[in-house]
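A further point concerns the way the authors explain their paired sequence and structure data. For illustration, here is how one protein appears when written out as sequence plus structure tokens:
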Amino acid sequence: MKKKLLWALGLVLVLAVVGLCGCSTGAPSVQLSSQQAGIWVSGTGEVTVVPDIATLRLGIEAQEATVAEAQSQAVEAMDKVMAALTDNDVDEKDIQTQYFNIRQVTRWDNVKNEEIVIGYRVTNMVTAKIREIDKASVIIDDVAKAGGDFTRIDSISFSVDEPSNYYEEARKEAMADAKAKAEHLAKLGGVSLGKPTYISESAQTPPIIYRDAMIEAAVPAPATPISAGELEISLTVQVVYAIQ
């Protein structure tokens, strides 16, 4: 009985294997993407430009015993700062609030053995885009004077208002760089270079930021020296060339 049962199970397994083989349409095949064939290279293009936009992060900070007093001082100081900006031809559309905060100021009381509130601090920070970059120094000085001891200037950064033309130039350089590399590789490999089958690009323009441009109080001093320097607009392309 056991022999018959084992024989029957064996027959079923054989039929199953035959059935699977019968469903097969041929040997397994691996299809590679066309992008995996050819000569892969990357090219870089860089253009040096002089910034024409300066962006200031500035504002005021006031601290008093009550929220109302701190808020009143903050509003008055900020109004003067805003007037200094607009008087220097900074358009209102180029001024944007970045941070506003009212918080308690505390200290540790050793007698009560607890934190006690000693006042309230109001902070109001904005960014101002300066399109007449030569006026950046004057604007910083006027803002510091207008806001007095409430003035806070965190940083200044520089950028290009219309970078598209520079990107076009950088793109041409990047493609030329990629082609030169591909031609060299093709020559070394003893093959002929075909047309590009794949192209991608990435671009980045990091602004120059002076993080130590902190001004916490208005003190009579010579004009603030500001140097815009230069920016490097960089663009990288990745190109795949066919092999003829």
Notes: DSSP finds four helices and eight strands in the chain. The longest helix spans residues 164-189. Residues 2-32, 214-219 have pLDDT under 50 and may be disordered.
